[in-house]
Specification:
- This protein has one domain (about 5-130).
- Helix content is about 25%, strand content about 20%.
- The chain contains 6 helices and 5 strands; from the N terminus they run E-H-H-H-H-E-E-E-H-H-E.
- The protein has helices at about 10-20, 25-30, 35, 45-50, 100-105, 115-120; strands spanning about 5-10, 65, 70-80, 90, 120-130.
- Strands 1, 2, 3, 4 and 5 form a 5-stranded mixed sheet that branches.
- The chain is globular.
Length: about 140
Amino acid sequence: MAQSAHRFSRKELVRLLDGTIGHTLGEIDSANVLGRSERNKGNAGAVFEQSVLGYPADSDKRPDLIVDGVPTELKVTGLVASPKSSRGWRAKEPMSITAVTPDDIVKEEFFTSAFWEKAEHLLIVYYLYVRPGKGI
């Protein structure tokens, strides 16, 4: 499978992502992803891809990034306060790694599959999701 052209060092990624701490998605959205599209569960990821990491969104099956030579999949997901305050935080929604076609997956070996190529190295970015008009 072709490798991503989006190459970063770990140090560079830490610097870029640390720069987003304490800011809302709207504040870091220099590419105006949120302003030009309807609500979409991929918008947060697109904000990080386009505004923070500086590359266009794509739907390639390969991992999003090459980090210090290692293919790495970027996943961005919101956290919400658990309805039971003593339970802390939970994911806003399920996370999808890649689409799987039943006819194709039966022909693949797990450790050389498109799924494993993405799942083997994940960079998961969490953000606090606050429903518009609501508090935490």
